[in-house]
Amino acid sequence: MNIWVDADACPVVIKEILYRAANRTKIMTTLVANKSLRVPVSPYIKSLEVPKGFDVADNRIVQELVAGDLVITADIPLAAQVIAKQAHALNPRGEFYSTANIAERLAMRNFMEELRASGVETSGPAVFNHSDRQQFAAELDRFLAQVRPNKHA
Fold first, then answer.
1. How far apart are CA 101 and CA 106, in angstroms?
2. Residues 6+ apart with CB under 8 A from 15
3. Most buried among 10, 32, 106, 130, using CB within 10 Å?
4. Which pLDDT tens digit goes with each residue over 35-62?
């Protein structure tokens, strides 16, 4: 199993949690972005720079991942593609996307996009806070303990 990170919009604090988890569990973690990223020196952490462009990073992640991998993303269309490939998608707020909730999430995203396109002002996502970070860390730890039961920290 590998962890893939849609890194362009991923909060720094989430990246730091992922760095610690990669080293602790020895799971290869790849941050994919359209700019050069500094990552800690580790045999389990690498960055992959892709060209700038619409969905280039997302497409690369989908191309590279295999069933069972974990993708960290807040991008709902990317999460839908991840689930379609039988992989796991976790957003930076600690919520897993699944076959049970992805269609509803996509529909809401598309509805909000239509509202904005017609001139309706909508509020963006809530400010990322400490409880979001805690929720992410807890869900990540729970997931990693399930997939690697003999690798507890």
1. 9
2. 5, 7, 31
3. 32
4. 999 999 999 999 999 999 989 999 999 9
Query: What amino acid is encoded at 27 in this protein?
Result: I
Count CA atoms closer than 13 A to 123's CA, side-chain side. 3
The DSSP call for residue 33 is E
Amino acid letter at 28?
M
pLDDT tens-digit readout, 120-130 = 777 666 788 89
Please choose, from the candidates 147, 123, 52, 64, the residue with its C-alpha nearest in 3D space to the C-alpha of residue 78: 64
Residue-wise burial string across 48-83, b where 16 or more C-beta atoms lie within 10 A, e elsewhere:
bebeeeeeebbebbbeebeeebbbbbbbbebbbbbb
Q: Which two tokens stand for residue 115?
A: 């509202």
Extended beta strands in the chain, E state = 3-6, 29-33, 45-49, 70-72, 88-90, 96-97
∠ Cα 124 12 55 (to 5°): 60
Q: Is the pTM of this model over 0.70?
A: yes
